[in-house]
Amino acid sequence: EKPKPAPVQCVGPEYRSESQKPTATVSTDVEFETVTVLPQTPQLIALLSKIRDRDTERGDFIFYSNRIIRLLVEEGLNHLPTVEHTVTTPVGRPYDGLAFEGKICGVSIMRAGEAMEQGLRDCCRSVRIGKILIQRDEETAQPKLFYDKLPTDIAQRWVMLLDPMFATGGSAIMAVEVLISRGVPEEHILFINLIASPEGIKNFATKFPKLRVVTAFIDQGLDEKNYIIPGLGDFGDRYYTM
Ligand code: PRP
Ligand code: URA
Known about the structure:
Elements (H helix, E strand, L loop, with lengths): L34 E3 L4 H11 L5 H20 L4 E7 L5 E7 L3 E7 L6 H7 L4 E9 L6 E7 L8 E5 L2 E2 L3 H12 L7 E8 L1 H10 L4 E7 L2 E2 L5 E2 L5 H7 L1
Bound molecules: 1-O-pyrophosphono-5-O-phosphono-alpha-D-ribofuranose (PRP) and uracil.
1-O-pyrophosphono-5-O-phosphono-alpha-D-ribofuranose binds next to strand 5, strand 8, helix 4 and helix 6.
């Protein structure tokens, strides 16, 4: 067996120039301006490397996923409206700042989306959370809706829709259809997602041109079983049961 080459040491915030980065560590470009991809910092790539590694055990998978989820929620909150708000500092000077405006809620697509709820709660204390249970058929990858329980005034709220994996886009599309049927305007929904496929993004953004997506990374594509590649396998299994 040939000895493995020593890993290249990447120092400092620049990581590597775009042209030097291995293909799989470059998020795929998409043409939709409603889609925001987190800044591709060395930290984020290192966190993604942890959770993509099949040898990462469950405790570490949860820990590193939660760190990325926190970054996603913080970025998602930047897409909500604010109003100008001036405060007085302890030294008696004005600070012309901002305040959040409007009511929000989270909606998780069960089961994997529930892993993102704590990250939202960490940023928005006592936020209301609704649930939609959608499961993808393991053979056909078609989504099936089993259950939903949503805040009664959801039509008056901004909705952070939570699901870490965005493969064909079928589950997310079905969840958005439920939200729209309850009166939530498309433009008041933010889909917060960890790893997307270009196919899923295209299906979704074409169907919902006003709905914003915040994701950490757009992967290369889907395999013959509609799993994201390189991906990280089944998120729900790795977070909850493996
Ligand atoms: C996974 C994932 C998404 C869906 C993505 O859930 O969490 O909901 O698949 O695939 P799609 O974009 O092709 O619809 P799954 O149905 O496997 O259930 P789980 O959350 O219980 O793992
Ligand atoms: N659901 C997952 O958890 N992973 C995939 O790659 C696709 C769907």
